[in-house]
Design the sequence.
């Protein structure tokens, strides 16, 4: 599937700083230390109601990861999926009287346009679930061969779905760190089916769902059907990045069951450990203190803000005012603060030196490389801008250097008029 156009990323003079990130599995901030080509997989959208500011915040956090890796001299092999065949998509399509494929195509187009407007660097491989059914079928076959999966007895209800034995790998649970009780709660809340009769254990995860009337299906050795959710990301990531790739990313609501099972499927299928070296999660965004969710209807969409004429740089600055691992809210006030900050920065850039721009760029790099400390990065540039506006302008090129660094490292280009 085609991705979207890449923004131009200027190079920044001086040396980049090696990136440190918080890894959910180890519970620590560690040096990412990838090879020359950093390998990153970030879970993509389920294309039925996009792109709200929660989605945007998550993709912007990983865009910052990409930008710091680039600055530190790495190439980045970035892979992202779209879950373009899943229950929520069918339900929305039914409600709106459109085909599920048409809905998926439309929402994916909108997502691409939003990402492009936000200057998000696109994935090299942008892959729809429906494009990779053969990869899923192969991986389910591997799991069955190794004895890590089983078919439901058709005598139960006629549907011989395929399930994954959740304890197939010895250290299942290492990614989220959840105990049995936390797993039980999260599994039921986030797409699991603990009450499906015929399973060996309530936590076993669906790999292949045999066709139900009215649902799309593809052929497989276990009957026509469609993939479960976790196996899709597991196969797409492993087949493009290999095992032990650098970063598996997504919002914090994916830590369990989705990332735990994506890892466990690939580890059980290959017999190799681990799926990813880092599991990185962005916190949840709400609106005025209440979690942003489709069911509450309190979504703020990127498209709506764009249509109101809001500069996408302000969406970045508003979201970056908080740290990516802290649950936080969007508000009008946040947008106003971002507007004031951007205006000050642009005035300082236009004015040029007055304060030490190399030191400001160094501080920006340091803060961002330290687990994406965006509040610290913004404060460093605020200080530079204040000092520049208070001082004597003497070197216009200093303003340009800071502007390039903001564009490259934060994705916030200056206004040039
Ligand atoms: N297609 C799956 C992943 S394979 C999925 O979770 N799709 S999604 O459309 O529901 O979410 C896309 C991404 O946005 C996920 O990483 C999810 O964790 C993140 N996300 C969803 N809601 C929020 C929110 N309120 N704040 C921050 N991130 C969010
Ligand atoms: Zn995923």
Sequence:
């Amino acid at each position: 599937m085609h991705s979207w156009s890449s923004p131009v990323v200027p190079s920044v003079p001086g040396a980049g700083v090696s990136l440190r990130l918080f890894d959910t599995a180890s519970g620590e901030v560690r040096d990412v230390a990838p090879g020359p080509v950093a390998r990153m997989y970030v879970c993509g959208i389920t294309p039925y109601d996009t792109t709200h500011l929660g989605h945007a915040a998550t993709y912007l956090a990983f865009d910052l990861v990409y930008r710091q890796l680039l600055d530190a001299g790495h190439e980045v092999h970035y892979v992202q999926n779209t879950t373009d065949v899943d229950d929520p998509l069918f339900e929305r399509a039914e409600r709106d009287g459109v085909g599920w494929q048409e809905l998926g195509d439309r929402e994916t187009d909108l997502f691409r346009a939003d990402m492009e407007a936000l200057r998000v660097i696109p994935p090299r491989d942008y892959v729809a679930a429906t494009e990779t059914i053969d990869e899923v079928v192969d991986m389910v076959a591997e799991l069955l061969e190794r004895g890590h999966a089983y078919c439901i007895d058709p005598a139960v209800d006629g549907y011989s779905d395929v399930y994954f034995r959740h304890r197939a790998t010895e250290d299942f649970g290492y990614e989220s760190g959840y105990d049995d009780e936390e797993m039980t709660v999260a599994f039921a809340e986030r797409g699991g089916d603990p009450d499906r009769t015929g399973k060996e254990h309530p936590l076993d995860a669906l790999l292949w769902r045999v066709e139900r009337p009215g649902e799309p299906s593809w052929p497989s050795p276990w009957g026509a059907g469609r993939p479960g959710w976790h196996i899709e990301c597991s196969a797409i990531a492993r087949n493009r990045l290999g095992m032990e790739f650098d970063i598996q990313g997504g919002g914090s609501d994916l830590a369990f069951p989705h990332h735990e099972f994506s890892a466990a499927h690939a580890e059980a299928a290959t017999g190799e450990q681990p799926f990813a070296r880092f599991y990185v999660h962005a916190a949840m965004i709400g609106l005025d203190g209440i979690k942003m969710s489709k069911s509450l209807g309190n979504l703020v969409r990127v498209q709506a803000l764009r249509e109101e004429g809001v500069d996408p740089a302000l969406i970045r600055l508003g979201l970056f005012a908080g740290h990516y691992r802290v649950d936080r809210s969007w508000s009008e006030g946040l947008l106003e603060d971002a507007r004031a900050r951007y205006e000050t920065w642009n005035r300082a850039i236009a004015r040029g030196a007055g304060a030490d721009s190399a030191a400001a760029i160094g501080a920006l790099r340091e803060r961002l490389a330290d687990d994406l400390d965006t509040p610290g990065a913004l404060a460093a540039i605020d200080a530079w801008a204040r000092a520049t506006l208070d001082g004597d302008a003497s070197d216009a090129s200093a303003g340009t250097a800071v502007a390039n660094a903001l564009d490259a490292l934060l994705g916030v280009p200056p206004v040039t008029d």
The CA atoms of residues 316 and 412 lie 7 Å apart. Residues 43-46, 54-55, 57-58, 81, 83, 233, 250-251, 253-254, 282, 284-285, 292 surround 5CA (ligand 1) (CB under 6 Å). Residues 332-351 form the longest helix (20 residues).
